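Retro notes
What went well: the complex prediction finally ran end to end.
Inputs used:
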Amino acid sequence: MEALGRVGFSDEQADLIDIAARFCRERSPIDRVRSLMLDELGHEPKTWSDIADLGWLGIAVPEVYGGSGLGLAETVPIVEAMGRHLMQTPYLSTILAAEILRIAGTDAQKQEWLPRIASGAAATLALAEEGGTSPDAIRTTLEDGALTGTKRLVTDAFAAEVMIVSARHQGEAILCLVPRDAIPTEALRREVIVDEVKRSFEITLDRVAIDPGAILASAPFEHMHLAANLLSAAEMSGATQAAIDYTVEYLKTRKQFGKLIGSYQSLKHPTVDNYVAWEMARSHLYAAAHCFDEQGTGEIATRMAKVATLNALSSTADRAIQFHGGIGFTYECDAHLYRRRAVWHAALYGDAAYHKRRLAELLLA
Amino acid sequence: MTDADPKELAEFAADADAWFAGNVELDPGFRLPLTFMEVGEDRQFDFLRDWQRRVWEAGYLGAAWPKEYGGRGLPQAFQSAADDAFRKHHAPIMLNAIGLNWTGPLLLDIGTEAHKKAYLKGILSAEDIWCQGFSEPDHGSDLGNAQTRAVRDGDQYVVNGSKIWTTLGGYAKYMILLARTDPQAPRKYDGLSFFLAPMTVPGVETRPIRKLTGEYGFHQCFFTDARIPASSLVGGEGAGWKVAMQTLLYERGARGGQAGGLMMREQSAFDVVDLAKRMVRDGAPVLDDPVLRDQMVDFLIEIQGNMLARQRLAMDPLNQDRPQGLPLSQKLRTTELARRANEFAVTLTGAGGAYYVDDPNAVDDGIWMRGYLNAFSATIGGGTSQIQRNIVGEHVLGLPKDGG
């Protein structure tokens, strides 16, 4: 059996837990979230530029490229706080793109893009196609210097200044860097997605010419997948905490039959079980962040964190809807926002059954 | 206590590791209890009492308790290092669990100097075995309603009544006793007092209770005009509820000060995986079954989650919003998991599940089924899991009290 992970955190993480919590609470009250859901762009440019000014985009970018040279672990408290306050920005997409560029980009690509990303350029990944996200599913081709194919579920594509696109090139699955302005705006179709706080696009690439130097030095699909799941777990941990707080608040104020409904064990006990599941998920999250770069251990810890946070958020949000009674069935109640988010994260980076199958291979061989 | 010197701590940890490696004996020729609630035979008791004394003499029990009371006066990190070695080598459990984990920390917190001098060293050496007298036949989870009476008579109290589910009751020299000194008190809680009651005085009788496993380990204790010294009172007359609640904080893991050592063999993720790897069903390894694989992984995630929770407990920045969340949910999490993991292990044994302990065909001498049945002692004792959910709901989440 591979070694299991350990919890740990850096001083930087500890500081960020406080700072990010305050920033997200102030910038993303629920009425702001609600109004941004109706906004085409979906986020506030001012918030985004403040995030850049805080240095949060360069956290995992090496210092030579204008970052602070920490790691993905230090982005976890930030993403968690964003998840807690349903704050929408292209942060997750951008951090993932920067991470791939750091791991797999050529020197020239890193020199051109990492400093720009660290100072505020949004970026994203375009991996998924009709057949899925795995390298085998890639039908998009890079031939004669041009990309042709259809990518889906490209998060924050409209806001991104650059994207990393997977394609088939001379029989190999490759990644290449495509500036957003190489793609005509008509090629972007905003998708109707289950998580209405987020923004996602289908992109039709019709012989999009790319630079010969645009191919990344390697195509670390597995690393990308794990990094995405780490941040996904972070966002869900925050969302679960919010869904618990939201439910508890209602149970403490709503009266039926002359009593606060939170005094009834049929509501109290499942809420406790969900809370306990969240605490466990959060332990897994911070173990995954701490061990992410350790071969083997990092993968186990990350997949466990994904399963645990996904299960915790799914059941917490499901019960949040139910325990709000009639109001829980309305669009106005926030419970569905959390339930939708869990479904989004299960759909995008692998659901619990998928990760458990992979864990079984790692742990039970 | 000062911070641990890293070099000294590392040396201590290495010594502890070597000591446990050389001294742990797991097969004395009879079944060793996996928890302190399973000590039902004299030979088990004698073995474990001797073992605890040896661990203490070697310096790996009570390392963080003050020197003048039998400890070593070291920072808590030293005892934690010893516990790691204890866990790693699957050492037999510490017998005097009530004394080490509840009486001791309580006396260190609020006991008089005379109490500390009289009791702490005997707790560590296992010379003086302790039991707990909280639950009564008609008042299990509803402790505040305890009816055992203690009436002051000169410099003594006269005790009448009955306590039940008393682990080690038949072996104990002392009991932490919750008894009613004032039946007229306006609030039932204000009529209770807390005693360090000797069990060796006339009028105290104990009767073993046969458990669902067929074995022994618990007692019912009967007090008939039993006279105990007034000096055994802790916290003053009428303060019993407050003192008992403080004791429960130690029991539920929410407060430190425990002497160390483990009072239960913990289910490690690896134990269940090892079992699964040995089991065959329909000619194929049981872990080829995709459903069992999926369930096994669920357990591993949960078992690992509790291991991580133990590490996270000490990391304040990761426990800001609800600092009591992990400690107060610890009993609920770990005892329920132990119950379900043992139950799952029984299903992994397939037809082997038909056998029970002592049959030569029983898998691993039937420890999994026995462990499953015994696991209920922890999901019921010390406040049932249902009570634990109330505690977490009310004290951690701030939900209204039942019926509120």
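What we learned: The first strand of chain B starts at residue 130 and ends at 133.
What to try next: split runs per interface for comparison.
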